[in-house]
Amino acid sequence: MMPSWNQVVGFLTDWEGLRPRYEYENLAFGPFADGLLQSGRTAPHMSGLALLEAIPEGVLQEWADPNNADGDGISGRANSVWDATAGGMRTGRFGWKAEQPSVRQQVAAALNGDMGITSPIFGDQNCPAPQVDCVSAPNGGEPEITLENFDKLVFYSATIFFEPDWPRRFVGPALEPQLAPVGASPLGPLQKIGFTVLAAHFAFHGT
What we know:
This protein is α+β, with helices and mostly antiparallel strands. It is built from seven helices and four strands; from the N terminus they run E-E-H-H-E-E-H-H-H-H-H.
């Protein structure tokens, strides 16, 4: 893919920006079909992933409002996705369309789909059948990232830019007595830095 940029002027006279244009060369699977739709993507923001992980699944389901029943002009529904570790369906939280249920699986999916690295969760190479060179290429082990290093990467991804005293500074001293420990968090070590479910509720409600 060969990206380039066109300068564009917005609706406001004092606004200018760049619009990406994509050109493709040496397509491995043949030419695109007529009418192909495409859109660019930037990397998702990672700060605060642990906040979202800490909100109980039932609360996310309660916040679902597909028909804007509360009249606030915002509608949305919870996405049910496959949890490869639990072996069942859970509410999606991460990714552009909430397609991953946990930070752990989001990291594993990014390693496998974006970088071609196998992990304790996704141990098969991401090689479509026509990519014979990919299938036959030597790998870096099975899996290619050890469980120890994978756990470190998950913990880093979950807590990036997270400060230990953030919950109390965020909600203020008046609400500090209401702070409650996460309890049985799937992230485990987060309990050691005082993470709280209540802080996550305040963050996502914007109060």
